[in-house]
Every structure is written in C-alpha cells, then in structure tokens.
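A protein record in our archive is deliberately plain, so that people and models can read it alike. The record that follows is passed on verbatim for readers who wish to inspect the format.
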Amino acid sequence: MSASPASTTATDSKTWFGHPPQLARMFSTEMWERFGFYGMRALLTLYFAQHFVFRDEVVNPLYGAYTSLVYLTPFFGGLIADKYLGHKKTVKTGAIIMCIGYLLLCFGGPDAKPSLEYAGKHYAVEVVKSGEAKTKYIVASDGKYQIKANDDGSIVLTAPHNGTSLPTTLAKGSYKFDGDRSPFYVSLAFLALSLVIVGNGCFKPNIATMVGQLYSQNDPRRDGGFTIFYMGINLGSTLSILLCPLIAKYYGWSAGFVLAAIGMAVAWCLIQFDGGRLKGYGELPAGTPDRSLWVYLSLLAAVPVAWFLMTNAMTTAEAAAGAVRSGTGLWAWFQSQSLMGRFLLTLFTAVVIGVPFYAYKFGSKEEFHMMTVAIVLCIFCFVFFSLFEQAGSSLTLYAERNTQLDIFGWQMPAGQTQSFNAIFIVLCAPLFSILWVWMNKSGIEPSTPVKFALGLILLGAGFLLLAFGARFANGDYRVPMFWLAAAYLLHSLGELCLSPVGLSMITKLSMARLVGMMMGVWYLSVAMGQFGAGLIAGLASTETVGGDVLNPKLSLTTYTGVYHDFGLYTVGVGIFVLLISPLLRRWMHKVL
C-alpha cells in the first residue's frame, strides 16, 4: 500500500470548501484529464467514419474494442501503483503517455478516398458538393455513373453517354463501398489509441486513490469530497465535448485532438509542479526497491499488445457483423468475434459462474447469497452500459446523419450532442443527492435493486422516445434535436439511479477476502458493456460513401428499428429486476 501522511481532519484551519486543500489540486487534475479524454471521445467515431471512411460495420465494433480496453487496463494500473511506482508517480506516467497518444492522433494523413468493390473490380468514388447537397459518382473507364439509393438497399446508376462498364442497378449485397486509405496512418492512429489505453490504465484508478488518502476511514467529509472530485469529471467532459468538436469543425481534426492533448498536458503540469502541496500523498513506503525501469519497459511492451487487439478488432469486425445478421448460431458467432471479444466473453462467463460457486463452497450461506446478488448486479450493469454507451458511437452517428442540428442558422457539430449527458448530470446530480437523503429520512428510499431497475427502465424509455421521435422527421429524414436531447435526459437520470450506487454496493456485498477481485469484476462488467455497445451499434450500421449515408431514409429506419427493439428489451429487463428485487433485497441480508 502507498504511504500517506496523516489524513486531514475537520479541525484543520486551511481547507477548501471545508475539505483538505489538496482536494483542489486533485479536482483540477482530474478535470483537465477528463477534458482531454472526453474531447477525444467526442471526435473518435466521426474521425473513423469521415477521415478514414471506415464502414459502419467497422467503426462501431472498433470503438467498442477501444473503450473495452480503456476499462480493462485500470486494474493493472492499480497494481503497478500499489507495488512498484506509487500512485502519484503512476498518475504522472499515465498523463504523459496519454498526452503523446492525443498528439499522435493529430497526424492522420490525407483523407481516405471512397471506393466501390463490384464484381471483383475496384472503382474510385467521387463526391461533388453543392451547398449542403452531395452528389456521388462511381468513376469507371467510360465515365462517371451517378448513384441513387433505393429503400431496399440496392442502388441505381445513371450511366454516362454510351457507358456500359456497370449495370443500371446493383442489388443489395452485390457491392461494397469502402475507402482507399494509408495503412501507415491507420497503424499510427491505432498506436495513438493504444497509448491512450495504457496511459488511462495508469491514471484513472490512482488519482481517485489519492483522493481517498486525504481522509481517515471514518471522516464524515469523505463522501462529500468524492462528490466534489467527480464534479470535476463532469465539468471537464462538458467543456471538452463543447469545444473539441467545434475546433475540429472549423480548423480540422488535428486541431481538435491538439486541444485534447493540451488538456492532458495541463493535468500533468498540475500534478508534476504541485509546489509541495501533494508531498507525502501517493508515495511508496520508504525502503521499497526501485523497479521503475522494469515497470516502464512493461508499459512499453503493453502498447503493441493493445495495438494488435485493436487491429484484430478491425479485421474481424465485418465478419462478426455478418454472423449476427445471418443467424448462423451462437458458436459460429463466438468464433467470428475478435480475440479480445472472445477473451472478454469467456472471462465474463467464467466469473458469472465461478464467483457464486466459490462463495457456495467456501463461504457461509449469507456470503453465498450476497455474492450471488453482487454478480447479478454486475450482469445488469453489463446490460445497462451496452445501451448507455451508444452515446459515443451510434448516437453520435445518428446525430450527424438523421438529426436537425441547425440552431438559428448555425450548424451544431454532431460530436457536441454528447455534452447533453454531462450537462444533465451536473444539473441533476445535486437534486438526486437531496432526493435520496429525503427519501431515506422518510423511510421510502428504494433499495439498490429497485434503483437498478429504475435505471434500466429510464434507459430503455430514452431509446423508445428516440424511436417515437422519428415520426417527426422532416423531408431530409432529420429528426428535431429535442428528441435526442430528451433521450439523453432519460439516459442521464437512469445513470444517476444505477452508476453511483453500483460500485459502493459491490464492495459491501463482497466477501472480505475478495473485495479487490470484485472491484475488478465490476469494471469487467463495464468493459463487457463497452464491447456489447459496439455489437449493438453494429446492428445499426447503414451503407455509407465517404462517411455520408447513402440513403438517409433507410438510415433513419435502421436506427429507429434498433433503438425501438433494444429499448423494449431494456425496459423488459428493468421490469424483471423490479419483480425480483424483493428476493435480491432479502439475499442482501440488511446491507443498505
């Protein structure tokens, strides 16, 4: 464990809003780190789709693979800090690695060129802009063929004079739009993301651990301190989601990523040049052997592993999407997944079965009951985040393709719509805190399983609202922004019901000797949710040319169908949790 100075007490003369003054430095560090992380996240899906012109079947699983790895690596970052570097040094290391990753994303090379594969031949595709309208042509040896999409997925080609290279109609499934892109720049982008993955693993768990070191175990200010600290997350993410897409819109992708890198650099400066404010916090005990070199070499070795997993996710994405649509069976679907996907699925299945079995065999009856409830909550956490994390993938693409983003003549960047969630969290979190306290004093506060159920029902209702809002689309098949914002509001309310209480409840339900492992299981369930989010977003894939949808009507129909179906499923799961909540509450054995 890291050494830490004596925790600040409530009687200290120097405080920051009644809390240890060091909290201000950690609050600011976390705020700027999240500024960088969420700013990059707001750009990433659109960057894949519009700059590299990856097909939707690749973009969505690729994003899911990236975010899954982001939530897996903090487990290893915590171990590194505890045993080898100390929390503060690990945080600084992670900040540097992430900053380099964001800077590398600035070097994306030239935009990929859209192309078409048909009957074993490769054709260039040209997109001609006229105001907001875009006309698309297939460039053949005998001229340009204008493309028009049909609702059944086929395309009609208007041939040039005496053009005979291509037929007048290409049936659905007979053609494939893709892009001519530089393998070097794709690899460089994956290297950048791999650095972010490794750096986040070092940073994310350890800055929170340092906050915990500011308080004694029974300090009544502890929960309030973490509440202030987490407000830094939402403040930083709100600012970056508003700014980075705006900068990218007017000055290019590189400028948006540079802004994210600046945020990360500020976070590093705040922790590196602390003026002695954090002296003694997050340090290793005196006399601990220095193994820094081996740790840094291990982190360096982890980067190509992450790069390989990202590359593998890209190369297997379309096969996995095809397996889902063809309904070839569970085993065939499992084999079609990326290596990381198969690993996650296998590990999560083993944990879901193995943890209750271990508790049954080696624990008391009460421990078996409580560990079973903990695993059940982890499963519902996976379900929740599989839908909630559409924000960074399919919902951003939906905003770009089928949402009216015009605000009094100004076109809002699609990536900015992700800020709705952060804004609603900032506005509603204090209200929820007051609400739970009042309900607790009144003896009517819902149990944790009921809160989980409400979170799932609100999340599903948000997607059902989106599906309903499609009825109000204009002639360009764009839905008023109100419906997207309203869906984000319901999602945010659902998050406030489920996410804040989940991790705390897992620690209370776990057997004492397995608390650390169960923390890892919770984050594994979140990582599984990220992976599931990529699979669900893949079902909402639609045909694109150069990052633009080929048929906006078909695109809206596809998104609406997926959101309607999964909205219903999620509401159904929420109702199921509500029905079994009395049993879960009984098996929690008075754990609040």
